[in-house]
Structures are given as C-alpha cells and as structure tokens.
Amino acid sequence: MTNPIEVKAWPTYDASATIVYRGGYDYDLSAYKTYTATALQVSEVFATVAPLRSAVEVYKSQHNSLRDFLIENLESGDISPETAQEISEIFGIELSKTYQVTMQVEYTATISVPIGDEPSEDDFDIRIDYNGTDGNAETDDYSIESFDFEETF
Q1: What is the pLDDT of residues 68-80, one digit of tens each?
Q2: Range among 89-93, 102-106, 112-116, 124-128 with highest mean pLDDT value
Q3: 3-state secondary structure the chain
Q4: In Å, what is the CA distance from 100 to each residue of 103, 127, 135, 139, 141?
Q5: Assign residue 18 a region: left if phi > 0, alpha if psi is -120 to 50, beta otherwise?
Q6: How far apart are CA 2 and CA 97, in angstroms?
C-alpha cells in the first residue's frame, strides 16, 4: 500500500495583511525597532528591487566598457588626454591602471631602545608610499625575510 500524499493549500494572497518585522543596525537585539507593513507594500518593494539590481549591473558593465574604451584610445593616441579627461569627469570614471609591484628592499636604521630591551621584527611596520602623479598605493602583503641587529655605541 502506498502512503497518501499530503497536499497543503497555500493561503490566498491578502494585500492588506500586516507583516511585522524588526530592523536596526545594532548587534544588541533590544535596540532593534519593530515595524509593520502591508503585504502589498512588501510586494512593491520586492518588485522594485529586482529591476533596480538589473539596471545597476547594466550600468556597471557600460561604465567599465567606457573606461576601457577611454584608456585604450588614450594610450593609442586616438583621443587627446583633455578629451579623455572631460569624458571621464562627466561619467565619474577614474582613468588609471592597477599594477601589482613586487620589490626587495634592504633597510638599515639606527634606533634607541631601553636598557634590557632588544628590537624584534614585530617592532617594525612597513609602509609604501607611491610618489607618482595622482596615484596611490595599498600595501597588500609584505614579509620580512631576515632580521638582524647589532649593538652600536
């Protein structure tokens, strides 16, 4: 004998049904506020979000394509730097390229430490500043390959 299949009926959609939800930005749940909305209001929000998300993705794609176009044509000399700059400002595009740079640096410093204390590699931070025109640098990763110190008088 086969087991009967249980069929559950979904409730009908009631646009005026009240939905209660809590919201806030604090980890303390007691700080959250309680809000109410109708089912219709919630449906309208969800109906609006999907097309907006799609439009944002299209805009990002077009923005990136225009950026690539400007950079390629600027580098090839097909458009002037002034024209590329004007277009990039209109559309809020940063005309730059990103490079990953690997370098080896040997650094020698003279430091003073209290008597009874010795320097360790954990006492030092490494920071890279890029001094090029209109650029910046973010140090993603660094390592200290060797660390040695010698007492001087």
Answers
A1: 999 999 999 999 9
A2: 89-93
A3: CCCCCCCCCCCCCCCCCEEEEEECCCCCHHHCEEEEEEHHHHHHHHHHHHHHHHHHHHHHHHHHHHHHHHHHHHHHCCCCHHHHHHHHHHHCCCCCCCCCCCCCCCCCCCCCCCCCCCCCHHHCCCCCCCCCCCCCCCCCCCCCCCCCCCCCC
A4: 10, 15, 13, 10, 11
A5: beta
A6: 66
